[in-house]
Specification:
Mean pLDDT: 91
Low-confidence stretches: none
Order of helices and strands: HEHEHEHHEHEHHEEHH
Largest sheet: 5 strands, mixed
Strand content: 5-15%
Number of strands: 7
Radius of gyration: 18 Å
């Protein structure tokens, strides 16, 4: 919500795409009151429902300057699957955003000054590359952080491949780590061990956490920059240090993996 507030405060016309429209309207009212500028509307969207994604994309009118792919499910303790049999974190965090972006492609391409795609990833991408032989945990044991990490790697790889495929249309695509922010995202981590870690974590405020998203969405400082991963308002350094909690891992920027993920994703969603 903070990213939407910051953009609306600068006059942007913001659409909140939400599953719960009533909750979305309450959030929109808070944004309108705080921002004092811009227009904020609410539209229904369920990233686990392909019909909902298609309906949202078909209802869009006019050009789209910025698409922020922000929805996320983190570290579900137990394996959950969609009706298609997809692991829920991969389905929500990557496939839903992938299908949405493809559905909105023409609107993005119509943006007068070049559109921006902003994908919210995480430093947990370091935990796992895309395990192409078993993305959906059909043969390997399910592990919550591996599943989440794989989905966050997918967010970065999506930006890498979208940057390549959409370059001639003036569309840029980047991914980012917002930092740790206390939100409902952590609601599934209820163990004593998780709480011990969280109690000592260097949390950001919502404003601090939104700053890198807003930078990529609107700042002229990154105009034309594409296919990168950012953290703390700067492009992240590439690192192979297994203990580093910052930086971007090579597997998340691998162009071959990015192209393969795009093709696999198209096949899964029936594109």
């Amino acid at each position: 919500m903070e990213s939407a507030r910051a953009l609306a405060a600068k006059g942007a016309h913001v659409t909140l795409a939400v599953r719960d429209v009533a909750a979305g309207e309450r959030a929109a009212e808070r944004i309108r009151a705080a921002a004092g500028a811009g227009r904020v509307r609410v539209a229904e969207l369920d990233l686990l429902d392909r019909a909902s994604i298609r309906a949202f994309a078909r209802s869009w009118r006019g050009p789209l300057d910025v698409l922020v792919n922000n929805a996320s499910v983190m570290a579900l303790p137990e394996l959950h699957r969609t009706p298609e049999g997809w692991e829920v974190q991969f389905a929500t965090n990557h496939l839903g955003h992938f299908a949405l972006t493809l559905g909105l492609h023409d609107a993005l391409a119509a943006a007068a000054d070049g559109a921006r795609i902003v994908s919210v990833s995480s430093n947990v991408h370091r935990v796992s590359p895309i395990v192409f032989d078993d993305i959906m945990f059909e043969r390997r044991p399910y592990e919550e952080w591996s599943a989440y990490g794989q989905s966050k790697t997918a967010n970065v790889l999506f930006a890498v491949e979208a940057a390549k495929r959409y370059a001639t249309e003036g569309i840029t695509a980047n991914a980012l780590m917002p930092g740790g922010i206390r939100t409902g995202l952590q609601r599934h981590q209820t163990s004593a061990a998780a709480q011990e870690i969280f109690d000592h974590y260097d949390w950001k405020t919502p404003e601090q956490g939104a700053s890198t998203t807003v930078l990529l969405a609107a700042s002229p400082l990154v105009a034309g920059v594409t296919g990168r991963y950012f953290e703390d308002n700067n492009e992240a350094e590439l690192t192979i240090d297994p203990d580093a909690e910052s930086g971007v891992r090579p597997h998340a920027l691998d162009p071959a993996a990015a192209e393969r993920l795009w093709d696999v994703s198209l096949e899964l969603i029936g594109g």
